[in-house]
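Title: Prediction job returns without error message
Component: structure pipeline
Severity: low
Priority: P3
Assignee: unassigned

Description:
Job completed but the reporter wants confirmation the result is attached to the right record. Sequence as submitted:
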Amino acid sequence: MKLSGFFERIKSGAYEKLFDEDFMTIHTNSVTLREMFFKGGYQIKTVKDIGNIPDKELDRIVKENTDFETWEEMKKSAGQKYLKD
C-alpha cells in the first residue's frame, strides 16, 4: 500500500495504532499523540480536530516536540513503521 491517501482512509482509532506508544516514546517527548498536541496548545478528540489545525501550527508542534521537522515527515515515518509491522 502506498502512503498517498493512506491517512485520509484511517479512522480515529487507527491514529492510536499508527502513533502508538513505542513510536511516540522513540520520536517525541510525549507518550500519546493527544499529549503532544496538548503540549502544543490544542485539545484533540478526533482526527478531524487535527485536520483543523493550520499546517504551520502542525509543523511548529512537531518541530518543538519531536525529532521530525514537519507533520508530513512524522506521518510518513509512522506510516512506514505501521506498514512494516
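Comment from assignee: result matches the submitted record. The chain has one domain: 9-84.
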